[in-house]
Amino acid sequence: MLYFDYSATTPMSDYALDTYQRIARQYYANSQSLHTLGQEAEDVLAISRRTIAASLPPARPDDIYFTGSGSEATFLALTGLAIAHKAKGKTILTTEGEHHSVHQALAFLHDREGFHIRYLDVNQYGQVTEEELRSAIDEDTVLVTIGHANSEIGTVQDLAALGKILADHAILFHSDCVQTFGKLPIPLDVLTSASFSAHKCYGPKGVGAAYLQHAVGWASFHHGTTHENGFRAGTVDVPAIAAFAAAVEEMSANAHEEMSRLADYRDEFIKAFAGHAEVCFEGHPTARLPFHIALRAKGMEGQLLMLECNRKGFAISTGSACRAGQSSPSRTLISLGRSAEEAHELVRITFGKHTTKQDVTQLIKAIKEILLTYKGDE
After folding, report:
1. Helices of type H across the chain
2. Over the stretch 147-158, which tens digit does the pLDDT of each residue have?
3. pLDDT range class, residue 69, cuts 50, 70, 90
4. Topology of domain 14-252, CATH
5. Residue 224: band (very low, low, confident or very high) from pLDDT cuts 50, 70, 90
6. Looking at the predicted structure, is the pLDDT value of residue 320 above 90?
7. Active-site residue 322, yes or no?
8. What range does the record give for the signal peptide (predicted)?
9. Which residues of 209-232 are buried (b: 16+ CB within 10 A; e: fewer)?
C-alpha cells in the first residue's frame, strides 16, 4: 500500500530508530539518578535538548521541555502560561480551526479557572488577518493561541505579523507548530511558547516538546514534580528523546530541498484536477504546507473516497487523525462557511520522504477512476 497520510504520522527514520536502540541499550538509567549511569543518561538528555534548541533559533536549551506528545506539550504550555499570568487578564483569543488539544486545554481553563475564550474570525482560507486580531484585543486579553498551520486544510498563518501586534500589547503568544516543525521556518522570536511532536518528523511516537521563553513565567500543572524542571511528571524517556533529536537533526539538514520536492508533487496533483468541476481544493493557494492537499469531491462523502482509495492500495485520510471516529463536521471547515455536508466531503492527502513522483501519478489516476465510476453510478 502507498502511504499518503504523513500529516497523521510518519515512519521512524533509520537514523532515529538506530539512535533509539543504541541509547536504550547503553543509557537505560533514570536521568535523575545520582550515580554515574544516571548522570550519563542526563548527559544524553542535555545533548538532545541542545540539538532541538539549535533547530529553533533563538531558543536556548533551557527553553525546551520534553513531554509525552505534542498534545500534552500544548496542554501544559497553555495551562501553565494562562494560570501563571491570570492576574493580568482572563481572556484568551483563538480560532475554531485549532487542533483538538488546544480546544481541550481552553475548555479546562474555561471550566476550571474561569477564563473567557473568544474565537477570532478567519478569512476564506482560514487565516487570521492583522485587522481581525487588532480589533479583538482588549485590556483583559492575556493570551493568544493560533496554530502555525492547519492540519486539515494546510493553510499557514503569518505568525510573524500577528506576533508583532501581540508584542506591542505585551500579550502572550502560543502556537501549535506540530505540522511545521522540521519542515518550515518557525518565527520563534515572536512566540512565547510553541509545541512540537516527534512522530510528525520521523521520530518515535510518545514524545513531544514545548518551547517556553525563558524570561516568561509559567505555573506547573503537576504540583511537586521534579522532572523537566516541574513541567511534566513521570520518568523521562531518554531513548525516545534522543531519537527525536536525531530525527530533527536529520530533517534540518535538507528541509528546504525536501519541501521544494514535495511542493512540486502537490502542485502537480492540483494541476491534474484543474478541469474537474466536481473537485475543489481547500486552504490558501500559496500560503500552505508544501506537502499537503485538502480535496473535496462535490457530493461525495470523504469517507467513501478514502475507503475506495484504500481498496485500490492508497492510504489517505478524511482529515485530522485526532478526529477519527467523530461524526461531527470539521470545526475548521464550518468556520470557513462550509455546510456540514460539504465539511464531510473533505479528504486529506499528504506527502513525505518516501513519496515518489510515480506514487503521485498513480494516486491521481486512481482518484480520477473513482470519481468517474461514482459519477457514472449517479
Report:
1. 14-26, 36-54, 70-84, 100-113, 130-136, 159-168, 238-253, 255-272, 302-311, 331-335, 340-343, 357-377
2. 999 999 999 999
3. very high
4. Aspartate Aminotransferase; domain 2 (3.40.640)
5. confident
6. no
7. yes
8. none
9. bbbbbeeeebebbeeeeebbebbb
Reduce the DSSP state of residue 326 to 3 states and report it: coil
Residue type, 67: T
Identify the residue whose cell numbers are 478567519: 122
Contact 77, 129 (CB under 8 A): no
Q: Determine the pLDDT at residue 172.
A: 98
Question: How far apart are the C-alpha atoms of 242 and 333, rounded to whole Å?
Answer: 37
Question: How big is the chain, counted in residues?
Answer: 378
**β-pair partners for 212:** 193
Give the CATH architecture of domain 2-8+255-377. Alpha-Beta Complex (3.90)
Q: Give the tens place of pLDDT for each residue, 326-335.
A: 568 999 999 9
**Annotated catalytic residue, options 201, 280, 309, 322:** 322
